[in-house]
């Protein structure tokens, strides 16, 4: 029987372009640091405004990764 153990860590990522870009940027960075990244859950999305215009997109996400044996 094979047993897999995973861990979940919360990260935040920002982008000046879009939520999609913030997600991709965060996952790309997580993949460089964590081995075995298997998925993510987008927990929260937030925009920042300057003079009524959207100037930033932020996501908080829970990233899952499988632990090495």
UniProtKB/TrEMBL annotation:
PANTHER family: CALCIUM DODECIN. Pfam families: Dodecin (PF07311). This is Flavin-binding protein dodecin. It comes from Allocatelliglobosispora scoriae. InterPro entries: Dodecin, Dodecin-like, Dodecin-like_sf. It comes from the Bacteria.
């Amino acid at each position: 029987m094979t047993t897999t153990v995973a861990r979940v860590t919360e990260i935040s990522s920002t982008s000046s372009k879009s939520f999609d870009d913030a997600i991709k940027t965060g996952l790309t960075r997580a993949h460089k640091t964590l081995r075995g990244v298997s998925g993510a859950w987008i927990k929260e999305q937030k925009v920042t405004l300057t003079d009524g215009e959207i100037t930033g997109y932020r996501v908080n996400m829970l990233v899952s990764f499988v632990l090495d044996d």
